């Protein structure tokens, strides 16, 4: 994944009455600083290694000062924490770097006094993510309350606010990446954004192409490139690749055969176990019933699990999904989903009569507006 292996040198030594600082020569990388009101605590640095926390260094805080020294072989996202507490944060560090921090009370209030451009811009990225995470939690709480009250008007308002918030967050992140094309933060942001099926992959590809060779060779950028290349296959303006799959009746159905009968074709990647998919189904059914006679068709591609054929068929019946369906019942290993680079569901692609992808992942009124527009072309 995004955390690569590195050599580790763990330091514990400290002479009483004398604090370690830059004179300490052990380890090629250092994180030091002041932890206000932290006297007597232990601070630890580590990284993720095969799903587990791997300690790199720790130090007891004396006179509010600390030093973590260790070896790194490549850039890493490191975890800072006070053991056995909820006090933690993350930091991007490059080999040979010296980072100086000022921590005011806890690690969530961490200021970078000295650090590379990548370390500083990564911290800015985390500030943006945390800023919007707080706003998202507020919206989620309001959404739960509106749902409890059955206030549909408020629910729709909050949904729109949530999607607008996501667009705003992604816009800030990609601008930050474009301003830091010469350091690893751009690659990390690319990796994060490229995992979003609704990302602007044309813009992400342009950003990736502008990175220096050493940044492109990072694990972050390599994973982003793979995501981008897969998703560009289904970018807006591209012709949707043809595919075939087993129907509920046991036959084989080709997408191109459904397309011949359609003025607009919606490819709907979903599953019976997917709650957001099932929640959207009533609105999609309403749109389908309204526009099917005018040339709208829907082809559902289910990512149901092996041995879950009955659940797939029951969901089709219960939700009244009276359109075309296929599924290999292979969960995330479904060959159609892999061909289309599907990483989350529900995912929808709206095709015109020529099979060109004209929109992706539209919901409710936006979906209906696009279908109506394409039917009138």
Level-1 CATH class name of the largest domain = Alpha Beta
Uncertain stretches of 5 or more adjacent residues? 1-24
Backbone CA Rg? 25 Å
CATH H-level homologous superfamily name of the largest domain = Glutaredoxin
Quote the distance from N terminus to C terminus. 45 Å
Please give a structural write-up.
This protein has 377 residues and is of the alpha+beta class. The protein is built from 11 helices and 15 strands. A 5-stranded mixed beta sheet has the order 13-12-11-14-15. The chain has a 4-stranded mixed beta sheet with strand order 4-1-7-8, covered by helices on one side. A 4-stranded antiparallel beta sheet has the order 3-2-5-6. The longest helix is centred in the middle third of the chain and has 33 residues. The radius of gyration is 25 Å and the shape is elongated. It starts with 28 loop residues before the first strand and ends with a helix.
List keywords for this structure.
elongated, Glutaredoxin, alpha+beta, 39% helix, 377 residues, 5-stranded mixed sheet, 4-stranded mixed sheet, Immunoglobulin-like
């Amino acid at each position: 994944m995004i955390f690569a292996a590195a050599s580790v040198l763990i330091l514990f030594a400290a002479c009483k009455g004398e604090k370690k600082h830059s004179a300490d020569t052990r380890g090629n990388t250092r994180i030091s600083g002041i932890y206000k009101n932290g006297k007597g605590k232990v601070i630890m640095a580590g990284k993720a290694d095969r799903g587990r926390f791997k300690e790199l260094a720790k130090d007891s805080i004396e006179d509010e000062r600390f030093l973590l020294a260790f070896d790194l072989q490549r850039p890493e996202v490191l975890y800072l924490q006070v053991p056995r507490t909820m006090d933690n944060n993350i930091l991007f560090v490059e080999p040979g770097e010296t980072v100086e921090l000022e921590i005011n009370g806890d690690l969530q209030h961490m200021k970078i006094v000295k650090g590379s451009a990548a370390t500083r811009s990564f911290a800015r990225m985390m500030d943006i993510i945390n800023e919007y995470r707080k706003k998202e939690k507020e919206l989620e709480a309001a959404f739960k309350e509106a749902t409890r009250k059955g206030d549909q008007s408020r629910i729709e308002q909050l949904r729109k606010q949530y999607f607008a918030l996501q667009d705003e967050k992604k816009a800030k992140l990609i601008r930050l990446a474009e301003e830091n094309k010469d350091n690893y933060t751009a690659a990390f942001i690319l990796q994060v954004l490229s995992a979003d099926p609704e990302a602007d992959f044309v813009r992400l590809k342009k950003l990736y192409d502008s990175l220096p060779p050493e940044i492109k060779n990072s694990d972050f950028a390599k994973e982003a490139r793979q995501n981008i290349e897969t998703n560009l296959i289904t970018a807006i303006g591209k012709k949707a690749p043809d595919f075939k799959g087993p129907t509920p009746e046991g036959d084989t159905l080709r997408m191109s055969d459904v397309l011949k009968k359609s003025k607009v074709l919606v490819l709907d990647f979903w599953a019976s176990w997917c709650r957001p998919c099932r929640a959207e189904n009533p609105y999609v059914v309403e749109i389908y019933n309204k526009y099917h006679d005018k040339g709208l068709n829907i082809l559902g591609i289910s990512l149901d699990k092996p041995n879950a054929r009955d659940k797939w068929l029951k969901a089709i019946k219960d939700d009244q999904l009276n359109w075309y369906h296929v599924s290999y019942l292979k969960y995330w290993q479904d060959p159609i989903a892999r061909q289309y680079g599907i990483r989350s569901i529900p995912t929808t692609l709206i095709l015109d009569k020529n099979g060109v992808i004209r929109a992706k992942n539209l919901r409710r009124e936006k979906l209906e507006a696009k279908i109506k527009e394409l039917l009138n072309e």
